[in-house]
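Thread title: Can someone regenerate the structure for this chain?

I was given the following input by a collaborator and told the matching structure tokens would be attached. They weren't. Posting the sequence so someone can regenerate them.
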Amino acid sequence: MANSKYAYVRSFELPDPILPDTFMVFRLDGHSFHRFSDVHDFEKPNDVRALELMDHAAKSVMEEYPDIVLAFGESDEYSFLLKRSTSLYNRRESKIVTTLTSYFTSCYVFNWSKYFPDKPLQYPPSFDGRIVPYPAEKHIRDYFAWRQADTHINNLYNTTFWALVLQGGQTTTEAHATLRGTFAKDKHEILFSRFKINYNQLDARFRKGSILVREDVEEPRPSLNQDGLPKQSSIDAQTHSPPDPIADSEASDTVTMGGTSASPPSEEQKKNEKKEKKGKKAKAKPPTRVVLLHCDIIKDDFWNERPLLLAE
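Best answer:
Regenerated them for you:
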């Protein structure tokens, strides 16, 4: 940025780094999505196309930003977990919030026609975002448990509410009055006794939300022959490589004027080479892919199966 007599105005900009060594949860919500869903005729109580579009946009965000290790979505909301050690944008809150929010929104609009081919956008959707730092693993687990519990509570209410309206013939005002003061068991009873709907058998996407997590991609295994040994072609592909002209020229340089090879590397040089190789192996991480799940994130099983999820 060029210096000029006007550059002093930059002194009014305040730094906003997130506290170091903390997890960051970035959550975005659709802005005025009640109106947006009405204008675009979303199906009630859940529109699979709209939910799949949210998943698609969230997955694109995770693929673009590898420091995001976990995401959870429900309705028009998505939460993203950035690993504790992230240095994304120097941990500047405004930079992370604005960039991730705008990228998610762009992906949502960009992929709209794939899920709503017969319904062009009537006006551009918008999302708002925020970041909350959490110091401990317990807080992260409790946060995602809170969001999934919220998913269940909201979906149970909405499923019962729209059953009363669409199948029971009630007005929205009457349906709200019917459900006022009811507990979960009462809503289950209404769904089953009046509409033969077993809530526990509904799509897990609606009841549990969407979970996006990274999983390691297994390296391809060599094909085996009838004796159970690797085929020669597989061995050749793994052990032989095309000649390297640079390596060949370097090798030729080791020959002295008298035609004898240079002195072998010292023990110290060998140790340094081994250290370099170990360092490269330690840095190399297996490739990963982002997978979509609809499972329980509250109980221990999800976290026990992924012990490294909160390690960094």
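Residues 49 and 115 are 6 Å apart (CA to CA).
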